[in-house]
Design brief:
Elements lengths: L1 E6 L4 E11 L3 E6 L3 H26 L2 E3 L2 H6 L17 E4 L5 E3 H9 L20 E4 L7
Antiparallel strand pairs: 1-2, 1-7, 2-3, 4-5, 5-6
């Protein structure tokens, strides 16, 4: 059997799938593609999603160089992710909740779909999930 994998951006790829019926839990699907092949299929859509998320982040929490003004605005003086103290001129982002994070830690968290402040769980940005659809082309009406 083959299925078409489609992302929300309407990119489609035909991929072989093995289907097994498990009496206890129902159908189980196994893509007959390696994880690297699967990532290659969805990578363009993932890059576009990350681009939109980073653009939203730049509006909600623009990158700043740590200085006295930023220190006065932020309620913490070390990154809650890597626990490194902020030094003068270090690139940081002050989140909408007034907690600060290293720019690198913020981007890394965003790429893992952690969209809330690690200190208070206040949302940083609104993000659409990356959705992947799978369907059997033989069962689709033309």
């Amino acid at each position: 059997m083959q299925v078409i994998i489609e992302t929300m951006e309407s990119e489609m790829r035909l991929v072989p799938v093995q289907v097994r019926i498990n009496p206890a839990s129902g159908p189980e699907f196994r893509l007959q593609a390696s994880s690297s092949e699967f990532m290659e299929m969805i990578w363009p859509a993932w890059r576009r999603k990350m681009g939109r998320d980073i653009a939203s982040l730049d509006v909600a929490a623009p990158q700043r160089r740590f200085c006295r003004v930023v220190a006065d605005r932020a309620s913490n003086t070390e990154c809650p992710v890597c626990l490194e103290p902020f030094r003068t001129n270090k690139r940081v982002r002050v989140l909408p909740c007034n907690h600060a994070m290293c720019d690198k830690c913020t981007i890394r968290s965003l790429s893992r779909d952690m969209l809330a402040c690690p200190m208070c769980r206040h949302p940083i940005i609104e993000s659409e999930p990356l959705t992947v659809f799978m369907f059997d082309p033989e069962s689709c009406p033309e």
